[in-house]
User: Which sequence fits this backbone?
């Protein structure tokens, strides 16, 4: 993978950075909790991304059904921790498939329960909430990260390793889609939460977000800062398919 670049900030190391980040999270719940907190704009991104009004949505892509079928076939295997399936899964395809699947969204109360458990530094409650979240959505990288931390702290190294592998694979599948420096090299995401989880994993704080149309595509442009250096910049995410699908969901039936 080429070095990650955010407009205004040079991010050294791609896959190595992600691997190191996930490894850091698995040192224990105390290490994981501060790193996973996100701005209020991301609080419910996993359950109900806010999408502006659409002027009419285009038809679904021709392969949307196949994409959904891939997710529906893979998701139960990942929830079970099937190691063969974990190794063989295309995680970019998995994330895209969830966008078109009829899978249930994560209830907001579960997101709230996880936030509350992390704020109280309650490892058992964190693990319980994260496990329930993953039952709804095995593509939730944050839930995998805190699960890895919880299992590690409890001495369940094997289960911790499974969640670390899944978190790394999901984050890496975003990282390999671009470098985030501009429209032409934007990272591709299929859920708003992926933007925040990815940026947190590579060590950037988010201070704002705006939706920007460019040509025939749509992008989320996030104002970010490297807390270690104080340098700010912008991270670009291609949300074209997400924007269109949310538009279709908002259309009168």
Assistant:
């Amino acid at each position: 993978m080429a070095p990650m670049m955010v407009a205004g900030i040079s991010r050294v190391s791609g896959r190595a950075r992600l691997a190191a980040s996930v490894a850091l999270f698995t040192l224990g719940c105390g290490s994981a909790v501060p790193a996973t907190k996100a701005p209020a704009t991301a609080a419910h991104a996993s359950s109900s991304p806010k999408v502006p009004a659409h002027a009419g949505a285009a038809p679904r892509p021709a392969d949307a059904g196949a994409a959904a079928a891939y997710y529906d076939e893979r998701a139960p295997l990942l929830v079970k921790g099937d190691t063969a399936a974990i190794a063989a899964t295309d995680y970019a395809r998995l994330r895209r498939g969830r966008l078109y699947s009829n899978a249930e969204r994560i209830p907001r109360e579960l997101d709230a329960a996880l936030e509350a458990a992390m704020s109280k530094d309650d490892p058992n409650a964190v693990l319980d909430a994260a496990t329930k979240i993953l039952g709804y959505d095995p593509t939730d990288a944050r839930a995998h990260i805190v699960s890895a931390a919880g299992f590690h702290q409890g001495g369940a190294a094997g289960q911790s390793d499974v969640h670390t592998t899944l978190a790394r694979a999901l984050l890496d599948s975003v990282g390999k889609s671009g470098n985030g420096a501009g429209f032409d090299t934007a990272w591709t995401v299929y859920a708003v939460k992926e933007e925040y989880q990815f940026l947190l994993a590579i060590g950037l704080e988010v201070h704002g977000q705006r939706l920007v149309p460019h040509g025939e595509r749509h992008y989320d442009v996030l104002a970010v800062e490297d807390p270690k250096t104080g340098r700010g910049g912008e991270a670009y995410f291609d949300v074209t398919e997400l924007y269109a699908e949310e538009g279709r969901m908002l259309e009168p039936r």
Q: What stands out?
A: The chain has one domain: 4-250.
